[in-house]
Every structure is written in structure tokens, then in C-alpha cells.
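hey so i finally got around to running the thing on that chain from the lab meeting. sorry it took forever, my laptop kept dying and i had to restart like 3 times. anyway pasting the input first so we r on the same page abt which one it is
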Amino acid sequence: MNKETGILVSGATGFIGGRVCERLVQGGFKNVRGLVHDFSHAPRVARLPIQLCQGDLTHPKSLKAAVANCNIIFHLGLGNGPGIATGTRNLLKLAADARVERFVHISTTAVYGLKPPPGAATEDARPRRTGSEYCDYKLAAERVVRHFMSRGLPAVILRPSIVIGPYSHWSVSIIDELRRGRYLLIDQGAGLCNTTYVDNLVDAMLLAAEKSEAVGQIFTITDGERVTWGDFIQAHARMLRGEPRFENISSADLDAYYRSQPGMVKASLKAIRTLLIGPEFRILLKQIPIADRLLTWAWYKTQAMTEVERDRLRKRLAGGSNNPKLGKAAAMPDAGRAAIQTANVQFDIEKARRVLGYSPRIHFAEAMQRTEQWLRFANFLST
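ok and heres what got predicted. didnt touch it at all, straight out
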């Protein structure tokens, strides 16, 4: 690409978008714009010599100045719920009107669901709605891109999997959970993670913007290594001083747990009960004189109980333990996390290698070293 090429990055304040902007500047590109919805989220890219354009993907008029005279658009912006597809459609319309030379859309392997079915390893597999809002909305956005492709827009779709590296929420949340106590592994961490180091993804994006053979194509992008969730989590555990403790639960036990959960009405009543006994709600109630008096009366009543009686009352109000097989510090994963971490599909990047010339430069070991350096720099880990 010519260094004077006009380039727009939507979602410039995000984890991946921020790295795209940094790489473009490092690559000597002079005419880079970042689409920013909220400038309070822009400190990472505000230090770069790029033009920041304020805009909202759900309001087409706010995007016109950002798209004007752009040759290439890297679309990483999200939005909320239906706004993911709506914002993508708005940007595509403007891109078509401006006759952009390339529209690179960052989708996700989650278009196959959080737990892809057997046979989803290659781009030939057909995406499907799964009932997961994020997956289905990203699939809807991808279908909009494919519609514009069919009308002649020179677009490319990339589907990365678990994107890792500096600023990734995956590493921050895993370190936080490990630090708090026992980490719960599902099936001993045997599920496949399909890591995609952020700089490898940016390499693929730049190739997709350059290669004429890429137009109209969809590419799966990962690091091409077989990495399990156990590998990924243990790599983070080694960053911490001391040896974090792990517990295990089988996917069969998880399935049984979720089947035993109450329906919507019972779950709603349970949530209301949790709210009513929460400290924040009690603070609000104490502002009402009669409620304050009742709370004081209830407190004196509990003080007259034995410790065994108080413990029994606490358990009754809390609804009992949801994970009796686990230690106190281990938290039962939600259904989404359980699906992601029990996936067993290894995504194939052969098409990206063959058509784009994509070859992942950063392997898993180095990716984790770089991530650890950033976590220490950002004070998520002690130095």
C-alpha cells in the first residue's frame, strides 16, 4: 500500500483497533484516521499522529467526514446488540458511495457459535444462529458485508478466534481470577483455545488490504498452533508468584448443573432475593424511617439466635450453595464460558496461508512473554 493511502480504522479505541493504529503509524502511513465514539476511551490512540474523527456507527451522518477520501477501511467497530449489524450496514453504504478500494471486516469464528460444531474447522462450514446474542449479531453483520460483496464492493472478511496480547481482556480477567484463589478448569483444561496473537491478526489485515486475490473472500485467522485452555491458563499462572490452586469440573457435571437450574420465574425470584439481602439495598432502605426501624428490629432478632441458627438463616436467604463439589474460592462458570472452554474444533488457516500469504510470526510462547511484559508494565502483575 502507498504510504499516502487514506485509511480509516473503526473501533480505533478498542483492543485490536488500537493496535492497528499503532502498526499503521509504525509502518509509515501518513493518512490514518481513527473513528472514535467516545474520546474518554481514546488515550491509547490520542498519542499517535493520526486524525481522530468522532462518530457513531448508528448515525450515518456522523460518519461522512471520516469516510471521505478514504481508500481503505478496517472495520472493527461494534456497538450494542442490533447496532452491530446496523452500524456495519451504515458504514458499508458510505464506503460503497465513496468507492473505497478495500473494506476489511473483522468478524469472528463465533459465527459458528461459542462451541463450534464438528466440521466447522474451515471457511466452507456454514455459520448458524445459536441463540447467543453476540454470535448471532456478529453473524448478522457478516451477512450484511456479504450482501455488499455480491453488489461489487471490494470487501474481505476475516474471522479471528481468541485474540490475545497486550490490552486483551482475556489476560486481565484470568490474572484477576487466579489471584483471587482457585481457578476452575473444565475437563482439566482440555478444550481448544485457538489463540490469535493481535499482531498476527494485524498482519492478516494488512495482507487482506493489499492482495487483489482476497476480494470477496472469507478467511479464518488464528496462530495455527494447537493450544488448549489449560495451556493458556497455566501460562498465566506461571506469571504469578506462588502456585495458584486449580480445581476441576467435568463437562458432564457442568451440563447436569445447568439442567438443574431454575426456569426464568424461579431465577428471577432468586435474583430479587439476592438484591433484597444485598448491602447496597439495605443502605437505600435505611433512608426510609419505617424501613430503618424494621431493619434494626431484625438485626436484634438475629443477635438473639445461636451461631448455628444464624448460619442456617444465611444459607436459606442465599438459596444454598450452587457448587457443592467445589472449594469456596472456585466459581461455577457461566454457560458462555463453559461453551467456549469445552470447544474441540481446531480451526484451519490453510486458505489464509495459500491466498493471503499469511504466516503467523508470533508463536504462543513469545505471545505470552509479550503479554506478561505488558501486564507488568501496566501493574496488573508486580515487577
